[in-house]
Amino acid sequence: MTSYQFIWFLLIGVLFSGFFFLEGFDFGIGMSVRFFAKNRAERDTVIQTIGPHWDGNEVWLITAGGAMFASFPMWYASLFSGYYIVLFLILVALIFRGVSFEFRANMQTDTWRNFWEWASSIGSFCAAFLFGMMFTSMIQGVPIDKNGDIFGSFTTYVNWFSIVGGVAVSLLCFIHGLNFLRLKTSGELRQRAEKWSKVLYPVLLAGEVVFVILLYLTTDFFTRKPMSTWGILIALVIFTLAAWWGAQSSHDWASFIASGLSLISVVVLIFNGLFPRVMIATNNANSILIKNASSSPYTLHLMTILTFTILPIVLIYFIWSYWVFYKRIKSPKQVAE
């Protein structure tokens, strides 16, 4: 394995980490539109919190997919063809979720406005759930032939571990969204988001215990990399407890950062378990390795130069955009007063 191959494996992990940190609270806000907000005024406020950001946050996913295509074409081909239906459903969920914000604002009747609000909430939940299900099913090992083609059955993708993974990621995103609401709103909405967080964190911790048990039973993470796997899992629990403490003590920033780091910990866990593989086969001889899946050294070299030239500009823009819209949004009752 060359240094460029290792760097690009790390960069793809960083891109997915950025996606789940940023788009994670977008998914949570989307779910909150119908599952948390009580009336139209509150739903307007909830959507307004991510109005300037949600479409920009999705760019991290597009960039991660593009980077995978350019740097590890065999990984891209195997993953995207083997998980074609799952990725298609994710795309449908993202489309419905994306257009729902625009269509809802222009609907003249309550019926269609409610329809697009439900499209936002269901689309956000389905996208988060399917991402979690896809990644957790992938790390169990899938039937791959010597050419890198996946021949999976229904239970390859849908099983107890993948369902628990999907639920866990959805719940993490929902709580991350509530923590973002606490940062961006004041008054009754913020207080209710804090109250919900206090109730949901014990449920999340119980789910994490179930996830660890199934991870131990269905993957090779603990046999191949016991120390790093346990270390990441301990970090995940610590971040969850820190976020819970933030909810109990009204430290909004602590809760938000810690819940985001919890999502990043899941990505780190997956990439740590994959390394030095990019796809895990049920027959270990057919697993796809980083060293065999990458583009040519020249391609990786050129991409590295371009990335480290453009990336600082992109990061500066993201930081600037969040700084411009950092102020809290008043709850509807406060506005009325």
UniProtKB/TrEMBL annotation:
Listed InterPro entries: Cyt-d_oxidase_su2
Q: Name one GO cellular component term.
A: cytochrome complex
Q: Where in the cell is it found?
A: Cell membrane
**Superkingdom in the source lineage:** Bacteria
Q: Which UniProt keywords apply?
A: Cell membrane, Electron transport, Heme, Iron, Membrane, Metal-binding, Transmembrane, Transmembrane helix, Transport
GO BP: aerobic electron transport chain
Which Pfam families does this entry report, sorted A to Z?
Answer: Cyt_bd_oxida_II
> Which Gene Ontology MF annotations are present?
electron transfer activity; metal ion binding; oxidoreductase activity, acting on diphenols and related substances as donors, oxygen as acceptor
Membrane topology per the record? Multi-pass membrane protein
Query: Per the UniProt record, which residue ranges are transmembrane?
Result: 6-37, 83-103, 115-137, 157-178, 199-217, 229-247, 254-280, 300-325
Which NCBIfam families does this entry report, sorted A to Z? cydB
Q: Which PANTHER family match?
A: CYTOCHROME BD-I UBIQUINOL OXIDASE SUBUNIT 2, CYTOCHROME BD2 SUBUNIT II
Q: Which family does it belong to?
A: Belongs to the cytochrome ubiquinol oxidase subunit 2 family.
Q: What is this protein's record name? A: Cytochrome D Ubiquinol oxidase subunit II
* Provenance organism: Lentilactobacillus parakefiri
